Amino acid sequence: MSDAPRSTPNYLAIVSLALGVLAVVNALWPAAPMAVLLGLAALIAGIGVMATAEAQSNVRTMAIVGVCAGLIGVGAALLIKPAATGARPHESDPSAAVDPEVIKQAVRDAFDGIRAEQESSPAMAEARKKAMQVRCSANMRQISQSLMMYSQDNNDRMPSDLMLLERMGMIRAKQFQSPLDSDESNVCDYYYVPYQRYRSGSKNWLLLWTDPAYTNGDGANVVYTDGQAEYLKADEFKRVMDRFVREYKQANSGNAPPVVKPH
Prior knowledge:
By secondary structure, the protein is α+β, with helices and mostly antiparallel strands. The chain folds into 2 domains: 4-120, no CATH class; 144-251, no CATH class. Helices cover 56% and strands 6% of the residues. The protein contains 7 helices and 4 strands; from the N terminus they run ααααααββββα. The chain has helices at residues 4-27, 32-50, 57-85, 100-120, 122-152, 163-167, 234-251; strands spanning 191-192, 206-209, 219-224, 229-233. A 4-stranded antiparallel β-sheet has the order 1-2-3-4, with helices on both faces. α1 (4-27) packs antiparallel against α2 and α3 (57-85) packs antiparallel against α4.
């Protein structure tokens, strides 16, 4: 009994692939209406597999191939074959005609199903999250490099406001917005501690960081006063932040870091 649910996606994937291949073959044969029906059946079976959580990746791949073959079969039956013979689809047999709108809707549903499957895949979600982390970190690196350049011309001190870098033409406005933050209302998405000095060889002091809420509490991108950047999980981020605040107070007569928040 326990093997039955797992085997169902396998059977559906095989059916989808077989029907898709038959649809292509029939599209190139005289029985074009049969190709349309076979192609639609392949789409339905393939989408059924992709909507099944138990299906393994190789089974899903087989189903996707079946869906694609079904689409090719339907397209060949409705477009390529009639064009080659010079006749309109199903002209010789009106009773076998298929409503074009039904076919269009079936194709749209198939592509929507494939897109939904890809977007809901844990691997795809993780890849998108990683890509956004990398883009966010790249923005922060660029900002930190501009801060270093500013400090070299200003008594080794960084500015009071990150937006000064934009007014000086050193950073584009878009780079102050983190890809991790879904709220686009902020002008700047990064936390920043101004007036710091470049600290060569040490990454203990934070310069820029993102709100862990951007990643649903998973962690934060950070940049240190020596220019190093990394992504910290939530627990490690808290340890680094606590150490930074403690050391900053010790070096500044007990005063807390003057953090400029996203705005």
